[in-house]
Amino acid sequence: MASATDKNEFFTVAAEPQVNSNIPPGPLAEKWTQHKFNMKLVNPANRRKHTIIIVGSGLAGASAAATLGEQGYNVLCFCYQDSPRRAHSIAAQGGINAAKNYRNDGDSVYRLFYDTIKGGDFRAREANVYRLAEISSNIIDQCVAQGVPFAREYGGLLDNRSFGGAQVSRTFYARGQTGQQLLLGAYQALSRQIDAGTVKMFPRTEMLDLVIINGKARGIITRNMVTGKIERHVGDAVVLATGGYGNVFYLSTNAKGCNTTAIWRAHRRGAFFANPCYTQIHPTCIPVSGDYQSKLTLMSESLRNDGRIWVPKTPGDKRPPHQIPEDERDYYLERKYPSFGNLAPRDIASRAAKEACDAGRGVGPGGLGVYLDFSDAIKRLGRQKIEERYGNLFEMYAHITGEDPYVTPMRIYPAVHYTMGGLWVDYNLMSNITGLFVAGEANFSDHGANRLGASALMQGLSDGYFVLPATMGNYIASEKPEKVDINHPAFAEAEAEVVERTKKLLSINGNRSVDSFHRELGKLMWDNCGMARSDESLRYALSVIPKIREEFWQNVKVPGEGEELNQELEKAGRVADFLELAELMCIDALHRTESCGGHFRIESQTEDGEAKRDDEHFTYVAAWESTGVGKPPVLHKEPLNFENVQLATRSYK
Amino acid sequence: MAAVVSFTRTTIGKKMLMAVSGAIGYGFVIAHMAGNFHAFEGREEFNAYAEGLRTIGQPFVPHTGLLWVVRIVLLVAVITHVWMAIDLSRRDLASRPVKYAKKDTVQSSFATKTLRYGGTAIFLFLVYHLMHLTLGNAHSNFIPNDPYHNLVSGFQNPISVAVYLVAMAALGMHLYHGVWSMFQSLGLNSRRTDLFFRRLAQASGILLFIGFSIVPISVLLGIVK
Amino acid sequence: MKLTLNVWRQKGPNDSGHFETYHTDKVLPEMSFLEMLDVVNQDLIAEGKEPIAFDHDCREGICGTCGMMINGVPHGRQIAGTPTTTCQLHMRFFKDGDTITIEPWRAKAFPVLKDLVVDRSAFDHIIQSGGYISVPTGAAPDGNAIPVPKPKADYAFDAAACIGCGACVAACPNASAMLFTGAKVAHLAALPQGQAERYDRVLRMVDTHDAEGFGGCTNFAECEAVCPKGISIDVIAQMNRDLFWANLTRSQPKAKKESH
Question: Which of A346, A601, A613, A650 is an active site residue?
Fold first, then answer.
């Protein structure tokens, strides 16, 4: 097995890593408070003179835009959707964690911090995670004040439920549409600022490049997706809040439009990409039903609160579920992890499902599925209670599959859901490019190798409402960005590159559609860099990806023109970037010869098939520097120091 | 006054003016229908009832004084209702400049869909009705101050009766949706009351149609002579 | 399954547009409606033609991006009583040999950008004119400081579930956006947090609704019949109620643009 310090033919290691996490000194619990006090401020009257570009309008982007606008900055906010209300944060179902301890069940900031670090398999920064846990309570307060209709009890107080990876009830929810309600809250706050004139919104606008002037991020190049016009925008700082890159797998629970272009273009301009191989496979999705499948639909993890997961004990048992007697069912999560049972963390639950299906015990067409059964819960609580908790999820399942989950158990299978990796950022959420900030799923910061359920919403809003607004002021006040405008040569150069690339895509006029390339890449990644990875599979993927990429640039067919609404052109640009990112993901996965969280290396497992970490060699963040397409990237290691928690084997038994 | 004007700012405000004027009309047609039943009591009673309407409030108000107040209120209500209907309809039609090649409805009833046309029919009928039984210029054998005679001789003509029945059907349909709509537009409806108002509207439509049809049919059949 | 599709094709906002007919025999009952269009588009691309442009994103019925008239009903009709989004409409609700007419939302306030893609920014403008609670970040009291009775919270949620897809406007004979506007008004009016701005909000939002060129409500209730989130016209009655009171007691508030 290659040791961590080794390089292989695919990458090199930086002798002097250029990654300073800028974690403030002092005790863990006081770092953020102290840091906030130490940071410089911008006089309210001067803020309007500073322009901040925010790309993305999901939870992180919209909340940052709203808050920075409210503080008085001149904010320009961009999204590819036709309205900021449609960002994919909207699809989050289950809930948002907060260390409120309203249940008096022993929750605390420290426990949320510890659960998150442990859930992330000890691959996240302590200081960031502690701050996240600390801010979590403020988020709930903020959202309630905005009118987010959280679930309530009959006494009128906020209701909670439990979620994977935790033994306390700390998840706040709004039926099965928590992400929607939180996003609409942020969208409304953003709308208020648009009304007030502090934020200018650019919907149906896609960022295609980052502009760097004198080493600082100073602007972006965009394409107006209605007219096709390529435009320049200048600002004092750029925030990327463009979400994750799960669509590299083609089939994922991400929206069809989710893409890596903004962060990948920034990476190509010098921003480090951290831990790209950490991808979360969500255990409870509706199984694939055919080759035409365009996306996968997630069923909230909260279903695991009341649903029991099982497969038949005998491989190849094709009887319908209600004909399989109780003692011939294997409730494998309850069996293997008695204390967490069906609420085991996502990576563990996903792998267990894969194992069951690989052993021939899967159910449904193709044998790629396991049962999620509510009959016990319906017996115990009554149908009405279940309807109240999960009504919309059950309805969605029935719409898609044509089966009634109140009668027949749901069939579920894991699917790509979230990417823990992302652009590398320091404690202030600034990347290694000065003035380039990254927030939400687009950065790598808080979840380590695996994200716990109901933590993505928490991180997005924490970054946007509370962290960025504080650190942005400090950046502007200390850097005092010099005056530049869109006539600077760097803008012209970046724009020319974008125009050139667009022209190229339109002129190839080959024989294969964009989707066919995307599907090919996705299948390759799922088979070789998915739930289980090996040296062999990753090397295989690394041998094929460049070939697909090459063919793409010679044989893709993009109909239509550049100066119009052209959805094929949009897709082509995104797939071109996925074809580059996929290679980096495999390189990262190949170099990390340990198993941790969402990254499972077949070579590194315990005797009973659990993930085996290699703390001696891999307790670090892998931040990758680009050296050009197809060229070996440079690895910068940011060591992770655990001063407050002890590295332990993650056990949910 | 500013408050009243503010209702004309918005489509909702205009709808409320329609609802209020509609409510006045609704009250009027119920009273009118009830009054019609005096026809079954014979000439004296019916004419006395008609005369009574003119002498209400005497001696405190002059002869036909209150009747004129009612007439003016009704006139204002009709003008408001029609004016708002035209104003809103023009706007509504303009809000979809390109029509669908294929359009289906999911739950709206025939009465709902024909409200606008039914309303027009009722307005035309109203003009005819006033000329027929109030002013007499559309009546072949009109005797002033003998409403019973005018009623009976008017409805011995089957064509008139047919016109009346069609018009009353239109009125019934109008109320079948309109009465519920009135509560909805004024914001008086809610989940708890919805079914009640819908049934009230349907009952109003059906009962008023029947109630108004009885007298002309009875005349035609010779029951009222 | 074999299908014949009559699809509205329009090159751009200024093109007059026309129907084109396509035939496909590659449709499976398990496909979603959008996956069916994907298949048709792949064939069009292979034939060297431009694929049909349509808006879509999450494909799980929550983002509200997709939407088209399918045989005269927004998002298509699947089973009576359970309306859905286009992405959640599955082909098993169609029969082999069916002819399907597909058109964009049609409303003055929703101009067509291309084929089946329309511009719904009018909805954003309505929300921008007051569909929010003014609470600066960080200024909020504890989440449990103000109890909200469960029925109120549930009612607020039902109204807040709106996904802004525009089916209500598409279905309305008057292309009115009252259900959309009423949903936000009712959501915020139901909560104690929304009371301070309640009446100014309704005045401004209704004003914007009308200014955007939507028609008025004639209580057809077609909107609630096609709403994928089952929002009831109850919210329109609530908005009417609030507007009635606001008209009696308030003067029209000014837009909030600050000097910048």
Answer: A346
